[in-house]
Write a structure and sequence with these properties.
Largest sheet: 6 strands, mixed
Number of strands: 26
Number of helices: 14
Bound molecules: flavin-adenine dinucleotide
Structural class: alpha/beta
Helix content: 25-40%
Strand content: 15-25%
Shape: globular
């Protein structure tokens, strides 16, 4: 038997921060790693809002996982969507694009599949109000934001024009605040001289949240500063407001006193709420793990599922001591899981329980304005913005992307120029998910754009094993 056959198998579900850092930790360990992700890229979610508002291209915030893993000789990448596990038989089942079933055996499993947008039981809102989690979301938002100004420019009816020039955001956490500020900057700076029939600066940006203030997790002092900066930018803040309906022309909102107000807004964006994806429920059912209210899997202080020391849950999908869903938690838990496995297979001392080192948080408000909170240190304004800049340059994945982001930020921050405003006016590419099982001809077209699909394999349901 060669080494490959005797080495333990580690399957990692998800190539976000947690999965990627786990794979990096295992790079030189005597294990065979299979990293499965339903998308081909590692995405830097914190800069999605800059992609959707024309500062950065999608290529600058997403890196092919194959590229990132090319020097990991013990790691195989598989593009597939994990659907469930057999905890007894230690097998993971997945669907390959076009619908075929795959199976992977494991000795250790690291679950790092993140979270997705939650509409708090109102999934019908998704039709009108895209969320902000994926590249697809960012490109839809880019089209809706820049497209709204075009439709306002040619609208003959003043009410219609005003509707196109009204942007509503639901959720005043970091994503909502960052997007709200960016849309006002697009309107008042980037598009200032480009239109002949409208004044882009007339665009209204309404920010709704059920809480007391924007950026509440940053504490009252920074939250108040953020509210003042947003007000100066022209963002209209509606706190203590619960959205009761969203449709194609606007939204209805209930205030604290119970009154419901209708707001006409052609662009509504959803930046509130997360929930674990369906694979979390499948894993919980197979292992008996408990889930919290958002569906995240509850783990012990070694990041494993009780009674399953071989299954780690890391990053956003993990529920442990109310840790927040942020990159640092994902990276640190990914590293921890990788290290623990490495220690076990090499017979080293057992790793200590997981301890989170809080390195603080930062949110961008507008050009030259940010808030940063590190322990007892609370900063806002220009200094915080400089710190924000360094943090994001440091954490962006890949040297080329760091350099590329700097090159794109220079004209955006100095001259209000946004070079990444391209969007399509016709449906391009997939209208189905790549994982839907379609008739053979349609399946070919769905994945490749090939209109006949003739030479592509049929979608089937027979499982085939890869690492078992
Ligand atoms: C808009 C936005 C802004 C943010 N800003 C900040 C910020 O400023 N600072 C900060 O610290 N954090 C921020 N976050 C949070 C941060 O991005 C997350 O905490 C972090 O990405 C979590 O990493 P993860 O690896 O757990 O999950 P993710 O990064 O979400 O990765 C999960 C991976 O799993 C894959 N996957 C999911 N389901 C399956 C499946 N069934 N089969 C196979 N693969 C699957 C996905 O394709 C994805 O690649 C932000 C998040 C968003 C959405």
């Amino acid at each position: 038997m060669n080494d490959q056959e005797t080495q333990r198998r580690v399957v990692i579900i998800g190539g976000g921060f947690a999965g990627l850092f786990a794979a990096r930790m295992l790079r030189r360990a005597p294990v065979r790693v299979t990293l499965i992700d339903s998308r081909p890229h590692h995405l830097f979610q914190p800069l999605l809002y800059q992609c959707s508002t024309g500062i950065l291209s999608e290529g600058k915030i997403a890196v092919p996982l194959r590229d990132l893993l090319r020097k990991h000789k013990n790691t195989d990448f598989v593009l597939a969507k994990v659907t469930g596990i057999d905890a007894e038989g230690r097998r993971v089942s997945a669907t390959r694009p076009l619908g075929d079933q795959l199976e992977f055996g494991y000795d250790y499993l690291i679950v790092a599949a993140g979270v997705q947008q939650s509409y708090f039981g109102h999934d019908e809102y998704a039709t009108w109000a895209p969320g902000m989690k994926t590249i697809e979301d960012a490109l839809v938002i880019r089209r809706r934001v820049f497209g709204a100004f075009e439709l306002a420019d040619t609208a003959a009816d003043p009410a219609e024009r005003s509707r196109w020039l009204t942007f509503a955001l639901v959720g005043a956490g970091p994503t909502g605040v960052e997007l709200a500020g960016q849309i006002r900057e697009v309107a008042t700076k980037t598009l200032r001289d480009e239109y002949r029939h409208i004044k882009p600066e007339d665009a209204r940006v309404l920010l709704f949240d059920g809480g007391d203030a924007p950026l509440a997790p940053f504490g009252p002092e920074l939250s108040a500063k953020a509210a003042r900066t947003l007000a100066k930018l022209g963002v209209e803040q509606h706190m203590h407001s619960i959205v009761t309906n969203i449709d194609g022309t606007g939204l209805s909102v209930r205030a604290q006193d119970g009154t419901v107000t209708r707001h006409e807004a052609a662009t509504v964006l959803w930046t509130a709420g997360v929930a674990a994806p369906s694979v979390a429920a499948a894993i919980a059912a197979a292992t008996g793990a408990k889930q919290d209210r958002a569906g995240r899997i509850m783990v012990g202080d070694d990041c494993t599922i009780p009674d399953h020391p071989e299954i780690f849950v890391t990053g956003d999908m993990m529920s442990l001591n109310k840790l927040p869903g942020v990159c640092e938690v994902a990276m640190q838990t990914g590293i921890y899981a990788g290290e623990r496995i490495k220690h076990e297979v090499t017979g080293k001392m057992p790793t200590k329980p997981f301890r989170y080192r809080d390195l603080g948080s930062a949110a961008y408000l507008s050009r030259g304005r940010a808030v940063v909170s590190v322990g007892r240190v609370h900063l806002s304004g220009f200094l915080a913005w400089v710190i924000w800049l360094f943090i994001h340059i440091g954490f962006l994945t890949g040297f080329r992307n760091r350099l590329g982001a700097l090159v794109s930020w220079w004209p955006a921050f100095v001259r209000d120029v946004r070079r990444e405003r391209t969007y399509t006016t016709e449906q391009v590419g997939l209208i189905h998910s790549a994982y839907d099982v379609l008739p053979p001809a349609a399946a070919g077209a769905a994945l490749t754009g090939n209109t006949t699909g003739a030479e592509l394999p049929r979608a089937g349901t027979e499982p085939s094993s890869r690492t078992g």
